[in-house]
Every structure is written in C-alpha cells, then in structure tokens.
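Marked as duplicate of an earlier ticket. Keeping the data here for the record.
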Amino acid sequence: MSEPYVLETRNLIKEFKGFVAVNDVNLKIRQGDIHALIGPNGAGKTTVFNLLTKFLIPTRGQILYKGEDITSLKSPAIARKGIIRSFQISAVFPHMTALENIRVALQTAEGTSFSFWKSGTSLNKLNERSMELLESVGLAEYANTITVELAYGRKRALELATTLAMEPELLLLDEPTQGMGSEDVDRVVELVRKAAQGRTVLMVEHNLSVVSKLCDRITVLAQGAVLTEGDYQTVSADPQVREVYMGSDGSGERGVASAEDDNLEAAQ
C-alpha cells in the first residue's frame, strides 16, 4: 500500500442544529495498528464512529480509506470496502444459537442472506467455518446454546466472532469491554489482540487499563476536538489529559471520568 495510513479524516466536522459534536478532527490510522479513541462522556467518540461508517453524514470534511475519498459512500458500501464495526450494545440475535448467529454473518459476507428459495441444509457448508470462528473466541462448547442464555461477556465474544465473519480489513470496536467484570475484560483483551492479527483496529474504550495493554496509538477527544495523540506513555503523562479525566471544571460531577482517572493511575 503506497498510502501511509489505512484511514484518515481531514477536518471532520459534525454539527447538530448549531451544536458542534465533532470539531475539525484529523485522524491518521496506520496499517496494522490498534488505535484507541478515548475521552470523557460526550467527547464525540461514538459520533466519530458513526461518521466513519456513515450512520451519520459529516457536515464538512473528508474521510479517506487507503487513500480513496469515501466521504460520499453509504453504510453498505463502507462495509463492502472492509470497514466493519461493532456497537456498544450487543447486536446478536438473542433467540438463535451461537452457531446460527455466525452462519447468518457468513451468509451476509457471501451475499446469500436473502436466498430464501434455498433449502436450510444449504447452510451446513458454513458450519465448519462457523465452528472455527466460535473456537477462536472460546465459544465452541456453546455452539448450540441459545444466545439469550449466554453470559454477557460471552455475548460480546459472540458479537466479535460475527464481526470477524465479515472478514474486516479495518475493525471498529465501540466499547468492547463495557459493563464487564475483570475476568471478562481480560478475556476480551486477548480476543481483541488475536482479532488484530493481520488487520487494523480502531476502538473506543473507557477502560484505560485495557488501552494501555492493547493500543499502539491513542487519540484523546474532548468536547468534540482532538486534545492530544501519541502512545500510552505520552498521552497518560499529558497534563491536559489528566485535567479532562479528573473533571476539574468545577461541576463536581466526576462519574465515569473519576473511574477513568483511577484507571489512568492504575495502568501506569
């Protein structure tokens, strides 16, 4: 690839009736990196994800993928380019088995999702690959378990497997460890590390301990704009980052910011 970055945004702006949610954001995501977007609640992280995958339309600015301007493309075309995302809320089918969820994702990747005239047995050819994906996220023994019966951490692992079934080149993970206990967090960290082999990952993540273990580069957003960028050591030592995460605006409301600052201290 001749371009230095797999994904780049140039002066990306998103306004909502006068409110600027994303303000002149310039991202440069290197091929093969695990790159994190971090920042306090309301910083614009998920909005950036929605702009990249065209769930929202930028007010101004450009999005480039492998040097190609993809700003005008719609979500399905973005996915066909190999940019696949997960969501904060688990997006699997609750009343299907884990295996069936993977098969649906594989059908989508093969373009046969709407071949209703085909016999259900025609899906059996996807079973081997489905089991490989379940094995890769530690869910092989739950292949025939109805998804609603899976523990929360395993549902997120299943969602990651369905995302990988789409063969992404650029994987966007939105809060992959949200709501998890420490044991599940450790498991997901290893799954993300494994999923990143041979591909690029851009992730939104509140848990800074996770970021410190996984990420090659970090972009910090605050009030919709880039505050700073660098590796974990550089970012964690930045006084502006500490001020943002401490919530030192006089409001006294620390909430998630307080927990993130505790993570900042612990991860060092």
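See parent ticket for discussion. The chain is about 35% helix and 20% strand.
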